Amino acid sequence: MLTRFAPSPTGELHLGHAFSAILAHDAARAAGGAFHLRIDDIDGSRSREAFVGAALADLEWLGLTFDGAPVRQSQHLGDYAAALAGLRARGLVYPCFCTRADIAASLAAPHGAPADGTALYPGTCRHLGAAERGRRLAQEPHCWRLDMASAVAIAGPLVWEEEGRGPRAADPAAHGDVVLARKDAPASYHLASTIDDAAMGVTLVVRGADLIASTDVHRLLQALLGFATPVYRHHALVCGADGTRLAKRDGAAALAALRAAGVDGRALADDLRAGRLPAGYSLQMP
Ligand code: GLU
To answer: TM spans, by residue (predicted)?
Structure first.
């Protein structure tokens, strides 16, 4: 058993992160396995070293210990580039030159992947001729998109195991031609997370149910890249008084603020384990 907690250092951790980290930590400890920390810092423009330090302090305050040194995605950019080159050689990705406005919805990963079809990439750049593609590649900023129809045809039907609930059918086609490498970052969340979960030997991915849609795409990438599929546990989300899930901007729920206010982190962790949340917060399945 190997689990991981994988915060993006783009803000302070909040109660929702604490809940997720505790579940992943406890699952590993209960099985005599390992719990690893991964810093998802591929987004160089938004990642801050101060948030890495704060996350380490938060975990210690909660009484959570992790094994080995933290893994940093920024040190694995070569792995993502190699995987992308392999997919490119197989004709499974294509460069997309569409503007930010066109692709804004697609770039909202990792949260809120469109499932209703409204925000799917229309495939404009999938149909470019080789000459135009070559010329624009040399001149224009571009991301790389998965040719979803081709990928799904190769992979065939896919399932993953949702811990304790049995097999789930993955529906990657619902996401359209997802971005695997961004204009402004060398890999998307989907590509980097799938590669690192495999490279780290993660056997159980514990994360919020808001990311369940991403698992459709990750399962497909595992099939294309020849990776083993971990078991998944998509857990309920910590929500605020308005019933919506916490975001990094909800400062009152920030662990650093609770820490500074003298809250006992280990007692808080035990409360979260028991499903007892501070006043005004609740656990909800989206
Ligand atoms: N860095 C991602 C996040 O914070 C990790 C999600 C995951 O656990 O796969 O949302």
So the answer is: none
